[in-house]
Automatic annotation (TrEMBL):
Signal peptide: none annotated. Residues 11-331 form the Enoyl reductase (ER) domain. It comes from the Bacteria. Belongs to the zinc-containing alcohol dehydrogenase family. Quinone oxidoreductase subfamily. GO terms for molecular function: oxidoreductase activity; zinc ion binding. This is Zinc-type alcohol dehydrogenase-like protein. The keyword Zinc applies.
């Protein structure tokens, strides 16, 4: 099959993207083999590239939609022809290829109201945002006498764009998002953020001007090491802080006096360790598909959908690394 892979050649300190002919993936008993139709780029792409050793070759891409081509012997929930979406398993080859084998437990039927390109923007971000809100923060278990609040740091990014919607429309939280450019401010407001603050200015002053004295949750999706002290300052006692990135230093001591809980979120954890609740990712995606079809959530694709090729994807990876992307960048997969 045709694939787009990252390659780090011996003696090189960098990777490059190349088009290759590779064998089709082996299909396990619990796997569905998907004919990939569309993919979205994510920071995990360049992070995997950065970690590759000389001589390594990886097919990237962990955000996809497609059509089931065939199924393993123990698959019960899917059949050939089904339209599906998923994020996949980071230990297996990714979706920048004609075909991808994925465990059925982390796959769901995609929304019937969306095309392949629109839907491809949502799986990884939805899983990440959902797990933070409902598995880590457990917002669904609270019955507050007043509406609780969340600060989403990096509200216009891929995960932030979905989290703003879920927090406002499903978790019923008052949503404050950070955004620094006029276009990103407009984007997060359009997704349902009640307030927007500038991450570069004083957080407490901006929140006070909004009559928000403290927030119950902080979801830090970017530059977490730089925002720890400010997060601790504006969090309510017994609040919660989550992060998804990889800061070189993280001083969690600032959270002690307020008894703030700290949660690291990696949406690949369930598939990496084949946890007993692995199937919950498939259920989660099914619930998100229902919310999309009901008009509660919308796609976060932003910008033109292009055909997947090495040059365009490389430029997108640079944009993601710079932290300037708004929403998600999506590609058609027509490699064959």
């Amino acid at each position: 099959m045709k694939a787009l892979a990252a390659v780090r050649e011996s003696g090189s300190e960098t990777t490059r993207l190349v088009h290759l002919d590779v064998p089709a993936p082996e299909v396990g008993e619990r796997d569905v083999l998907v004919k990939v139709k569309a993919v979205a780029a994510n920071p995990v792409d360049y992070k995997v590239r950065d970690g590759m050793a000389p001589g390594d070759k990886r097919i990237l891409g962990w955000d996809a939609t497609g059509v089931v081509h065939s199924v393993g012997g123990n698959v019960r929930g899917f059949k050939p022809g089904d339209r599906v979406w998923y994020a996949g398993n980071i230990e297996r080859e990714g979706a920048y290829a004609e075909f991808q084998a994925v465990d059925e437990r982390i796959v769901s039927h995609m929304p019937s109201s969306l095309g392949f390109e629109e839907a491809a923007a949502l799986p990884l971000a939805s899983i990440t945002a959902w797990e933070i809100l409902f598995d880590r923060f457990r917002t669904h278990l609270t019955t507050p006498s007043h509406q609780k609040s969340i600060l989403v740091v990096g509200g216009a990014g891929g995960v932030g764009s979905t989290m703003v919607q879920l927090a406002a429309r499903v978790a019923n939280l008052k949503v404050i998002a950070t955004a620094s450019r006029p276009e990103s401010v407009q984007w997060v407001r359009g997704l349902g953020a009640h307030h927007v603050i500038d991450p570069r200015a004083d957080w407490r002053e901006q929140l006070s001007a909004l009559n928000v004295h403290a927030v119950d949750y902080v979801a830090s999706l970017t530059a977490s090491g730089e925002h720890v002290a400010r997060s601790a300052d504006i969090l309510a006692p017994q609040g919660a802080f989550s992060l998804t990135d990889d800061p070189a230093h993280l001083d969690i001591g600032v959270f002690k006096h307020k008894s703030i809980s700290i949660h690291w979120e990696l949406m690949f954890t369930r598939s990496l360790y084949e946890t007993d609740d692995l199937h919950e990712q498939g259920r989660l995606l099914h619930r998100v598909a229902q919310l999309v079809d009901a008009g509660v959530l919308k796609s976060t694709v932003n910008g033109p959908v292009r055909n997947l090729d090495a040059g365009t994807l490389d430029v997108t990876h640079q944009e993601l690394r710079a932290g300037t992307a708004i929403g998600k960048r999506v590609f058609n997969v027509s490699l064959g």
